[in-house]
Design brief:
- The complex is a heterodimer of chains A (280) and B (471).
- Chain A contains twelve helices and two strands.
- Chain A is mostly helical and 280 residues long.
- Chain A has a two-stranded antiparallel sheet with strand order 1-2.
- In chain A, helix 3 packs parallel to helix 6, helix 4 packs across helix 6 and helix 9 packs antiparallel against helix 12.
- Chain B has 471 residues and is of the alpha/beta class.
- Helices cover 46% and strands 14% of the residues of chain B.
- In chain B, helix 9 crosses helix 18, helix 15 crosses helix 16 and helix 18 runs antiparallel to helix 19.
- At the A-B interface, helix 1 and strand 2 of A face helix 1, helix 3, helix 4, helix 18 and helix 19 of B.
Chain lengths: 280, 471
């Protein structure tokens, strides 16, 4: 049996491999190639070397967007994970109606980014109108608006993952700790947190990459206004494509840089949190 | 260790395929370039079009997409050639065109460019239309997009913008016993000073006039600021570059912007924002739609926009503006000699024929456009269904559009002693310049930056964008 599977393995895996190559590998390589060219459509590209990359880094908008994205990611990863974890702790205690609360907290995640962006734009502008300003008045308004929006959307999802993790914490360990006279806080720090480390890994990974790659919420909420001060990387790349004549290649170069950054951050983070995981 | 060698192998394979793609890509582009010079279209039909079954038009205007389908059906009935019309979603034309053009076999044969800058973007795909009847029948040949000897874009709809006003409210003001100016009709308003006097007086008695402000909100939300960063800036640009020769060409070739009309721009912009029903700090979230509906429901007396806005006004729920009351005023900014200034007339809609497509198809596409703008059925459809002010000599006087704003545009174009302002803004070096200027306007109106800084930024950004374009 084992042998047969081994022999026929290439055949069975072929459709997936072909699909993967066509829809992922090929466009990816094409994309990298295009970042070294000047092109209007993908079929009329002309090789220009690394000039697209130098232009990309000379573009102050790109550098601003990079910093804005980094700041946003740090803040939102921390807030989302802390709040989601606390909610998960709360909802794994035996409170009446936990299932209802879980559902409600999870729901924002089901709404698409653009819709959510517009809804929050209305809410935030509605509140700000009492102070006679709107969200585009200052970049910090847009920043915190985005943080609130991102929290609202992702907390429920992360909470579900944390709940699953917390429910898997062995009751034996907790009971043993009780007998040894550990306080609730000690139990949380010494037992629950190490035990849910796999959940923390996956949650930080998801929030980190989602925050870094944020696009539709950014577009719907501020579209980068005022100016390009609240523009995040993905939106900047998108705008580069159509902002200037013959800037498609530069946009593509930015996209490649963006990919490398996301990949490096995600891999480092995975490595770091994985190393803290304990075998249960 | 084995894992590592495997990884290196995969990596090297990847490298190989990258260079393979790179090579084939280079070849492809070479092929594309050589075919460029070869195509020249003429109406003498040297090219046999009998083999053509289908041509493809990528339409720019979503509001009239269904009307094009009816026209296409009629054309197929008459000639047997199918016209495939696809419409790009609002604001998505460049993106749609870019993706559609990528596949040579199914690329549009007729597409649209927005002027000289659009031509720069698509010059590899624009066929020379100099020998066509379509070009010959243009009422003003200078409207076409040209480069060297070639003609690459034919305008098909002239549009005009200015300050739209609701004459019912204006009459109410002129008949009011509380007014403190001497003007008694809009015909007397012939300069910025006149306009300013009337507008500021109206603001004083806005309660009696039943309006919330004179001007509709100056929409400065990102993506909704084109009325200011593109249209309004056209007026000072025109005065700056109208120094002999074609103003648009001068603007296109300008390495630097002196922005000599900056004070004029500030005049009118301040007038708009100081006499509006909307608080200045709220403007960053206002859209064009909101602005137009304020006008339509009678909350304000004036709004700056073009003749395309009539549909928007008339379809607003609770519209109180009658089509006999809707009139135009040129955008006066306090420039010298503006008494003879007319509306801003021009076009951003140019047909271009895809030079990369099959020559027979290119010819068939030209045939279709000539039919649309010269046959009886076609002309009727253009005027009544599409609502264009078509700049072709094939249209007689009784074949002109009937919507009130378009009629007003035509009336202003024909007024004696009035010079229309051309759309010089087509020579602005990039979208980026416009967006940055719009962002600065927002900061200015919110009191976060000085006007002098806005002007300075506009100048430095202009020089930078021109330089980037040259690279």
């Amino acid at each position: 049996m084992q042998k047969a599977i081994k022999r026929w393995f290439p055949l069975f895996v072929l459709p997936t491999v072909v699909a993967f190559i066509i829809s992922f590998i090929a466009p990816f390589i094409m994309g990298i190639y295009l970042s070294f060219t000047k092109f209007k459509t993908v079929s009329n590209a002309k090789w220009v070397g690394i000039s697209n990359y130098t232009k990309a880094f000379q573009d102050s908008d790109f550098v601003n967007a990079l910093w804005f994205t980094v700041k946003f990611t740090i803040v939102s990863v921390i807030t989302i994970n802390v709040i989601a974890f606390l909610l998960a702790l709360l909802l794994t205690k035996s409170i009446k109606g936990t299932n209802l609360f879980r559902t409600i907290f999870f729901m924002p995640n089901l709404i698409g980014g653009i819709v959510l962006g517009y809804i929050w734009l209305m809410i935030i502008n509605g509140v700000l109108s009492y102070f006679d300003v709107s969200i585009t008045y200052d970049a910090s308004y847009g920043f915190w608006g985005l943080v609130i929006l991102m929290n609202w959307q992702l907390i429920g999802y992360m909470m579900i993952i944390y709940i699953a993790g917390i429910q898997n914490v062995s009751p034996d360990l907790l009971e043993a700790a009780d007998i040894d006279g550990a306080t609730n806080f000690q139990k949380l720090i010494k037992i629950t947190v190490p035990q849910v480390m796999p959940s923390i890994t996956i949650c930080t990974f998801l929030t980190l990459t989602n925050s870094f790659k944020l696009f539709d919420q950014n577009l719907a909420l501020t579209a980068g206004a005022p100016g390009t001060e609240t523009q995040m990387l993905a939106l900047d790349i998108y705008n580069t494509f159509y902002g200037r004549v013959d800037y498609q290649g530069v946009g593509q170069a930015k996209a490649v840089v963006f990919f490398i950054i996301v990949a490096v951050i995600a891999l480092t983070q995975l490595y770091l949190t994985r190393s803290k995981e304990v075998e249960s | 260790m084995r894992k590592l060698t495997k990884l290196t192998a995969v990596f090297m394979a990847l490298c190989l395929s990258v260079s393979a793609v790179a090579l084939s890509g280079c070849n492809g582009s070479d092929g594309g370039n050589t075919s460029d010079g070869g195509s020249k279209l003429s109406s003498d039909s040297k090219v046999d079009t009998s083999s053509v079954k289908e041509i493809y038009y990528l339409n720019f205007k979503p509001e009239i997409s269904q009307k094009y389908e009816a026209i296409a059906a009629q054309y197929e009935k008459e000639t047997g050639i199918k016209v495939k019309v696809t419409t790009a979603a609002s604001g998505e034309y460049e993106k749609t065109l870019t993706t559609q053009m990528a596949n040579a076999d199914s690329a549009p044969t007729i597409f649209q460019i927005n002027g000289p800058v659009g031509y720069e973007n698509w010059k590899d795909y624009c066929a020379d239309l100099k020998g066509t009847k379509l070009y010959d029948s243009l009422s003003d040949k200078s409207l076409a997009v040209t480069s060297g000897d070639g003609v690459y874009g034919i305008p098909y709809a002239v549009e005009g913008y200015g300050i739209i006003y609701n004459n019912a409210i204006m009459d109410k003001y002129f008949n009011s016993d509380k007014k403190s100016t001497e003007f008694s009709s809009m015909d007397e308003i012939r300069s910025f000073d006149n306009l300013k006097a009337v507008v500021e007086d109206m603001t004083k008695i806005k309660g009696d006039l039943g309006i919330k402000g004179v001007f509709a909100s100056t929409s400065l939300k990102k993506g909704d600021d084109w009325r200011w960063q593109t249209h309004l800036v056209d007026v000072p640009l025109y005065y700056e570059f109208n120094t002999g020769g074609n103003a648009l060409t001068n603007c296109l070739n300008a390495k630097e912007l002196a922005f000599s009309g900056a004070d004029n721009y500030k005049n009118i912009f301040d007038l708009y924002t100081n006499n509006s029903g909307t608080d200045k700090k709220q403007l960053g979230s206002k859209t064009v739609d909101e602005s137009m509906s304020e006008f339509a429901v009678g909350d304000v007396a004036m709004v700056q926009n073009g003749n395309w806005a009539w549909g928007q006004i008339s379809s607003t729920k609770g519209n109180v503006v009658k089509d006999t009351d809707i009139k135009y005023l040129p955008i006066y900014t306090g420039a010298e000699g503006e008494e003879t200034q007319g509306l801003c007339i021009g076009t951003e809609n140019y047909f271009a024929i895809n030079s990369e497509s099959d020559p027979a198809k290119q010819q068939a596409s030209v045939d279709f456009l000539e039919w649309l703008f010269s046959s009886d059925y076609g002309k009727k459809a253009v005027v009544n269904e599409l609502g264009f002010i078509a700049p072709f000599t094939t249209f007689s006087d009784n074949e002109k559009p009937t919507d009130p704003l378009a009629k007003e545009v035509l009336a202003w174009m024909e007024k004696d002693g009035i010079t229309s302002v051309p759309w010089v803004f087509a020579g602005i070096p990039s979208e980026k310049w416009k967006n940055d200027f719009g962002a600065d306007l927002l900061k200015y109106v919110q009191g976060q930056t000085e006007w002098a800084k806005v002007v300075e930024n506009a100048k430095t950004s202009w020089a930078k964008e021109v330089q980037l374009k040259a690279e």
